[in-house]
Description:
alpha/beta, Rossmann fold, Helicase, Ruva Protein, domain 3, 2 domains, 7-stranded mixed β-sheet, two-stranded antiparallel sheet, 11 helices
Amino acid sequence: MSTIDELPPLREVIASHGLSARKSLGQNFLLDLNLTAKIARAAGDLTGSDVLEIGPGPGGLTRGLLAEGARRVLAVEKDSRCLPALEDIAAACPGRLEVLNADALTLDPLEYLTPPIKIVANLPYNVGTELLIRWLTPKTWPPVWESLTLMFQREVADRIVAQPGSKAYGRLAILAQWRSDARIVMHLPPTAFTPPPKVSSAVVHVTALPAPRFPADPVILERVVAKAFNQRRKMLRAALKGLAPDIEDRLLAAGIAPTDRAETVDLERFCALARSFET
């Protein structure tokens, strides 16, 4: 029986299985096994954890996750052309890799996973942000996952870790940073991929906090933040005027000047404003 180290290079795998990347599936394959191993290591200690991987493609990151000691990897791949290559990896690691031919947007992976769970993926560009938002907004917190180590377009990664006052700061930053620690751990140029995308990429590591940084009802906080950033050029007294007739008083009580714009308000003050609507 072969081992991971005896598997053929990814370029041979792609050639032998006819795995040309499809734009419709958001596919850009990362073929450098040194880079995929580095991403796997960025997820931290994987021994003793189940790992969920979305969009494994020919399995470069999958190999890295298994080599780094993941207890078990659940690889969810929508493109059936990739299944034979992934099954070759499964054969080299008996009992440690399960491959599902499914759409990650419609699959509930929890029935296949046992905590502790980490999510590590080179996410397809066309579904990456939607999946991240789902993972950050479960019905209960803390979530089932301990950490997320995910590759995005550089622009999206910058939005996740953005701080107040920057153009990238917005709803995604607040959503990510309210209940987790998020940081960029790696940058990758377009030339690292086959085919090269038109944009640079970055890997973001997100660690779940046991509780939110500041108290707030998640539904109310999302409504306030969404309304504030939907008209981010406006002063908040104008952007939020539809929420309450006394919005200026509420802003002042939360430590926000009515003339401030959304991009200047930090997470703590947005949470204070959201709490004013809970009673």
